[in-house]
Amino acid sequence: MTDGGEVQASAGESLPGTDGPEQRARAALSPLSIAGNLEYERVLFFSDAVFAIAITLLVVDLRVPDVVVDASHELGADKHKILSFGISFVVIGLFWLGHHHLFRYITALDRRLILLNLLFLGTIAFLPYPTALLSATNGEQAAATAFYAACVAATGLMELVIWLYAIRAGGLVPASISPTRRRYEITRLLPVPLVFAVSVPVAFADPLAAQLTWLLLVPIGRLLRHTKVARQVSSADD
Length: 238
What we know:
Elements: H1 21-29, E1 33-34, H2 38-58, H3 71-77, H4 79-102, E2 108-109, H5 111-126, H6 128-136, H7 142-168, H8 179-189, H9 191-205, H10 207-213, H11 217-224, H12 228-237
Antiparallel strand pairs: 1-2
Helix pairs in contact: 2-4, 2-5, 4-6, 4-7, 5-7, 6-7, 7-8, 7-9, 8-12, 9-10
């Protein structure tokens, strides 16, 4: 019996009644840990660490020369690197806020959800690479812009998959979380993968236009906060 009050088998052992294939399958999908349990907290701590490292790696590409003759010239030369850093800092920061928000409602974990979370974190950890590629090309090459957009779209899609799995698997999201809230969270997660995915073909026609497309997320987010579903969720929370 753990401190969280749940029974866990040590590695290589099986719990009573889980010897058959059906029982083992059910055991594999049953919650491994719940909120407040050390195993649950370890997953969140690890997730936060990946976000922190990914954001830190963004600044590696920003280097000041050993000898600076003209600071204004250096700033002008690095403006695209600074802009790429700013874009990805905001992107990763928003993904962190979204992840933190979802795990207010996801109060238990099973093996599949842990795996999905790892895949999501893998896309987060990879984002500094397309960011560096985007800055190295000054955001003017179609392939670099399309690749960056595809990577962010994949990250947003993985975040959506985490939520979709959590609300469909038993015991991961409390029954007290209303169907309206569950639908609203899906609606809230959809714009990022959709907007960035749409910008991929746009990038091959005009990289700058594709980057401007990403700004659509600002008015879309504001519109979503004023929908009927958002008002219903807000009134239910109150």
